[in-house]
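User: Can you fold this complex?
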Amino acid sequence: MKVPGWTDVLEAHNRIAGWVHRTPVLTCRAIDRIAGCEVLFKCENFQKAGAFKFRGATNAVFAMDNDSALKGVATHSSGNHAAALALAASNRGIRAHIVMPETAPPVKKKAVSGYGADITFCAPTLESREKTLEEVLARTGATIVHPYNNFDVICGQATAVKELIEEAGRPDVVIVPVGGGGLLSGTAIAAKNMSGRCRVIAAEPENADDAFRSFKTGVLQPALPPDTVADGLLTSLGQLTFNIMMEYVDDVICASEKEIISAMRLVWERMKIVIEPSSAVPLAVLTGNRELFAGKRVGIILTGGNADLDNLPF
Amino acid sequence: MKVPGWTDVLEAHNRIAGWVHRTPVLTCRAIDRIAGCEVLFKCENFQKAGAFKFRGATNAVFAMDNDSALKGVATHSSGNHAAALALAASNRGIRAHIVMPETAPPVKKKAVSGYGADITFCAPTLESREKTLEEVLARTGATIVHPYNNFDVICGQATAVKELIEEAGRPDVVIVPVGGGGLLSGTAIAAKNMSGRCRVIAAEPENADDAFRSFKTGVLQPALPPDTVADGLLTSLGQLTFNIMMEYVDDVICASEKEIISAMRLVWERMKIVIEPSSAVPLAVLTGNRELFAGKRVGIILTGGNADLDNLPF
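Assistant: Here's the predicted assembly.
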């Protein structure tokens, strides 16, 4: 599988710049004091469709040639990628076919259908999702856009840290959450190209630590059944994102559920912004390992703001 | 009582500009669609100490002559004004004496003491608060800074809408919440001076409608025991803020509790920012009276972000 390079990231940024929000980089003195370092928060919770996923989806959708595009795009997802792909396809004026488990929260179904996508419901198992998606692909001829193990998606996700560094200057370290590894891969490629000395740390929930185990053993490890409040990070690495992680990422550090919830609350209370639990994992890693980051400039990507207000973890 | 003029607002802005955040003006297409107009949100939830109150408190503290300042400032409050005054005094390096009911939430006590203020606790009645404050004043010689019925405080609050108009251009209407009327007074003075055709609407909870009744009768009405989720708007107008309202404000419109909670949730979900219930009253008035605002440019001041995450109304 081809690994994206810096030129691919630059192309992606040119391609998507007119479609995505250039989200702000916020700082918070109270959190700097608590963390013992300078934290630069790239606020993808303010991104369209509520998460950085819209960058990758937009790049994948607009990178397609016209003939393929006319047949639409497809994916199975019940989360932010589904909404992001639906909106990106709508922007290009093509169909998005989304396979969702029938058990998905009504608010997510509404978001995806609100962007005009075709939803096909399936049983809530990976097997049913994949089988249903295959049927959709056979019926429509649509192009599958994988949520993370996809060249163009990774290039799109890379643009978030690129904007962070362009706006705020070079950080000493960047910390991003890892689920499937799309954001991690893109971030690592962009950060290392923009500043060779910038360390890239993946932040992962202890209760969904397949990236941690894969990184430490050097062998792609299957995900054990994950059980974490960070519901955006339940997926496991793909082969492409694993390869990129092993080449570019400096370390993977885990945070406990308690640390994640506490970091999420800290951001809500001190910064007055809404982030979803997955977004809080990097700050949880930071505050749980202050000695590693003391006095440094630390970039963090707040990945999304689609928190379920009816089920807050605090 | 002297009514502030435009020159006083300009002086206030010069005085406080180095101390307060120039908060962003945000827009949200999804809310524009729902509201049927263009809404400009001035985000004082991102202000220092979490609310616009810091503008008025800072102006009052820094307008004092040195001899008075050395004796400190004092107020009774369990809310945002207490924290704002404590921080403003700390910035000038003088004492703040805050009288708080012993029943105040721990988080508010912590915020005020965190800014270095002296707290004197009292029984949770207005009588006890006023008596305790008198004792503090007698003991310390401090200057009382009333949360809203105060010339300098009103001038400071006026700077929020001034910044909104400077940044986003002239709105057709500005809607702000009314409790004691400090923000309303300042906003009306500034908005009418910057744009004579700009309408100024006060937004008030139905369940705390003393400003509405005062406006409609032309006579300052006592507050009936208020009972609203908008806990920043429990206070009633003072004589000065009543006078200014009668001179400058175009209308007072009320919103139900249900409308307020729904507007609050809308902002959290769509804008991904944390606002306290009082901040949602203008948007509740807007969405409850769409025909009045159709197609207009509407400025709204999101007054604060100090929501109690343990007691959310939804």
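The domain at 54-144 of chain B is CATH 3.40.50.1100 (Rossmann fold). The mean pLDDT of chain B is 96.
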